[in-house]
Design a protein that fits this description.
The structure holds two protein chains of two kinds. By secondary structure, chain A is α/β, with parallel strands linked by helices. Chain A has ten helices and ten strands. In chain B, helix 2 runs antiparallel to helix 4. Classes of the chains: A alpha/beta, B alpha/beta. At the A-B interface, strand 4, helix 9 and strand 10 of A face helix 8, helix 14, strand 18 and strand 19 of B.
């Protein structure tokens, strides 16, 4: 049946994703993993990603919820077309389907979370008083080591639909799904810089992520358990919010709430 | 004389009676439903900052006392958490009612111990404290509606460390949601203002709250640190300075303890040229001079649009000359005593730095009492964003004035701080209010008003002003762990 293959394949270089571009690490390093060479991001790559994320955060937050929902739905559409590629790169087919379905589910929350989490507050006085959720700003996400795609999607999607810019440190042992997801994001109208994906050594990158003063929230769900105490201590220097999902594969609006701030606004009522 | 002397209005003294307060010579720790001295026998003295006279001696908790308090809270936890919500609810309603019943006694004692004007403790602190218990009493039996799709279980023993600026009110903000959700509490009041918390212990006992559900340990920073670090504590809630908040966050890293922080602020109060100016002046005065400026959300940076800066300042200085500074127990007093010698020194140092850095000082002529800790209402003009008085929390009656030309510039300047607790906006244009409110990085935005608080209204900070909210349905989240509803 199969004809003898005469065509040489084109191999893929697994690079970083920063500011909508796919650079190699500025350090020139890569590491052998999962049958490929992946970029080994440095502390400076991480700083670049955070800086770009900070600049992109306000614009992403200012999109209408409807627009954010449409863009994130578009991500699911493009993901669907890459199902085979994710499977070829080590994600089980069922995991890929679950990840795409989860992405669609979270995309739909864009214009609903404020109605679930926001309130009008019946204060004892002539004031209109309401509370609305707002994105916290820049979120650093340490992706679970496994499963590589569903684990990352389960943490990234709620932070993104909340309106934050996100810097991801991918699974160290299985980074390929994260790099391919970055390629999906780059072709789905997610504005450049809103998501950065770094591959490399968690032990090297996480202390800088946890301590960086322009990271407002750090999600340590995928951090090595023996590193958590030191990372939480580093986060205290800027009163950073620290998230550790009880279930790394949770699918819930409460996961979105962990990436939101509540803002209360008062105004007098009168003639 | 010329016959053109300014009209001068003297107020006759209108002192609030202290008869309603029955001070004891000494106060013990409240552990397991009983008052007892510290195991070490150590005590400290709490002063009236308006007179520097000692009010009482108070037990100084050591590690063994903190240990006993946490153990009592732990013993009480299972029973309290298992109690039907409707019973927790009714007990909290009793507490609210009893606070209202003894409101004047609490108000007078609060003013004696902390130095705040009686009209504020009487009209703000104590009524709001009671209202907070009333609000959360009603949540205790409705928690399944607060977290749809989830069960809400208490966290366990909550360690709560509170500041001296609103002693009873901060105790209420902490204790009411903790108890409503089924946690037990060890509360550490501030060293300079322990008395209303200890009086409140009497209210808890009168309400038949079971022993150990609330324990109160008095003392200084060492007692607070011991409490926060105690391995028997499941939750830490702290209100105070950002510096101490960071220490706490660092100290409990990796322990799995839940944490909520309500920390410092350097709020901008932004006045546009189209604001109702006289209302704005009142709001600016209330924003910074309420409670002598000992307010984390105080509007300590006035951002005024350049076109009206001169006029607004003239009106502001005029208004300042009518503020009455002095005896906190006098019902006419607007500014009471600074809470402590240490705080007075800090304010004095920062204001001197403001002048050194080029700020121009204005203080209205006012006669300060000979004894006690006092600081006149103060305005610093010509302040720039790099000045210490524009960056650091002063926590005193000191307003730094900056100007802006455009709304974008106002937002940029307002957000140019590591803090993010609150902000004020004054304009008659509704669309501008909402535009500003959406861009200010602050947990509370007061538009055409300032310093409003309500138990139904969530309060808390962005950025280095802390995390977690107090008040309303959002305030429950800091005291529960969520589980899957319906057993999956």
């Amino acid at each position: 049946m199969d004809e003898p293959t005469t065509r040489l394949g084109v191999r893929k270089t697994y690079k970083l994703f920063i500011g909508g571009e796919f650079p190699r690490s500025e350090s020139g390093r890569s590491y052998s993993v999962d049958g490929v060479w992946a970029a080994q991001a440095s502390r400076k790559d991480l700083r670049d990603a955070v800086r770009v994320g900070r600049n992109a955060a306000d614009g992403w937050a200012a999109r209408t919820a409807y627009n954010r929902g449409q863009i994130l739905y578009r991500v699911a559409e493009v993901l669907e077309g890459r199902r085979g590629q994710f499977a070829d790169e080590g994600a089980a087919p069922a995991e890929v389907d679950a990840a795409i379905d989860r992405w669609v589910w979270y995309a739909g929350w864009a214009d609903k979370i404020a109605q679930v989490a926001g309130t009008v507050n019946p204060v004892a006085g002539p004031f209109f008083d309401f509370t609305v959720p707002e994105p916290v700003g820049v979120v650093g996400i340490v992706a679970p080591e496994a499963p590589p795609l569903l684990g990352l999607v389960s943490r990234l999607a709620p932070a993104l639909v909340a309106g934050n810019a996100v810097v991801v440190v991918a699974s160290e042992a299985s980074p390929r799904a994260a790099v391919t997801l970055a390629e999906v994001l780059a072709t789905s109208d997610v504005p450049a810089g809103v998501v950065a994906v770094l591959t490399g050594r968690k032990a090297e990158l996480l202390p800088w992520l946890a301590a960086h003063r322009d990271v407002d929230t750090v999600d340590l769900t995928g951090a090595p358990p023996d590193a958590v105490a030191a990372l939480e201590a580093a986060a205290a220097d800027s009163v950073k919010r620290v998230v550790r999902a009880a279930d790394p594969l949770a699918e819930s609006p409460y996961e979105i709430l962990a990436f939101l701030e509540m803002k209360t606004v008062w105004h007098p009522i009168g003639r | 004389m010329t016959g053109l002397e300014p009209f001068h209005l003297d107020y006759a003294p209108a002192p609030e009676s202290t008869d309603v307060v029955h001070l004891r010579a000494s106060y013990g720790l409240f552990i397991d439903g009983r008052f007892a001295p510290a195991r070490s026998g150590d005590v400290f003295t709490t002063l009236n900052p308006a007179t520097e006279e000692p009010l009482a001696s108070v037990a100084e908790a050591g590690d063994a006392d903190v240990d006993a308090a946490v153990a009592a809270a732990r013993r009480a936890f299972d029973g309290w958490a298992a109690r039907p919500g409707r019973e927790r609810s009714k007990l909290l309603y009793r507490v609210a009612r009893q606070l209202q019943e003894r409101a004047r006694e609490f108000a007078v004692l609060e003013t004696m111990d902390g130095g705040k004007p009686i009209k504020e403790s009487r009209d703000v602190d104590v009524p709001l404290a009671a209202a907070h218990f009333f609000h959360y009493a009603g949540w205790a039996d409705k928690l399944e509606y607060a977290f749809p799709g989830r069960t809400a279980a208490p966290l366990g023993v909550a360690a709560q460390v509170i500041p001296w600026n609103f002693p009873l009110l901060m105790a209420a903000w902490k204790i009411a949601p903790a108890l409503a959700t089924g946690n037990t509490v060890v509360l550490k009041p501030a060293e300079t203002t322990p008395l209303t918390a200890l009086l409140f212990a009497e209210v808890l006992a009168e309400a038949d709250l079971p022993p150990g559900v609330v324990n109160i340990v008095t003392g200084g920073p060492a007692a607070g640190a011991a409490l926060v670090a105690h391995p028997g504590v499941d939750k830490v809630a702290f209100t105070g300075s950002t510096e101490v908040g960071k220490q706490i966050q660092r100290s409990i890293a990796g322990t799995g303890k839940a944490l909520s922080l309500e920390l410092g602020g350097k709020a901008a109060n932004i006045v546009f040229e189209d604001a109702a100016l006289d209302q704005a002046v009142e709001g600016v005065v209330n924003g910074i001079y309420f409670n002598q400026g000992h307010v984390c959300c105080a509007g300590s940076r006035l951002l005024v649009q350049e076109s009206i800066a001169a006029l607004l300042l003239e009106k502001l200085k005029d208004r300042l000359s009518t503020l009455r500074v002095g005896d906190p127990l006098d019902k006419n007093t607007d500014l009471g005593a600074i809470n402590s010698r240490a705080q007075l020194d800090k304010i004095t140092e920062l204001v001197a730095a403001g002048v050194d850095e080029g700020g121009e000082l204005y203080q209205p002529p006012c006669e300060l009492p000979a004894r006690g800790y006092w600081f006149p209402p103060t305005i610093l003009t010509g302040v720039t964003q790099s000045h210490r008085v524009a960056r650091e929390e002063i926590f005193g009656p000191v307003l730094s004035v900056l100007t802006f030309r455009t709304a974008d510039e106002a937002v940029a300047k307002a957000n140019n701080t590591r803090y993010g607790l609150s902000a004020g906006v004054w304009t008659d244009k509704g669309s501008k209010i909402l535009w500003m409110a959406s861009r200010l990085k602050a947990g509370v935005v007061w538009a055409n008003t300032y310093n409003r608080f309500d138990p139904a209204s969530p309060f808390g900070g962005f950025k280095e002003s802390g995390f977690g909210r107090e008040g309303g349905i959002h305030g429950l989240a800091s005291y529960v762990q969520l589980g899957a509803a319906g057993g999956g």
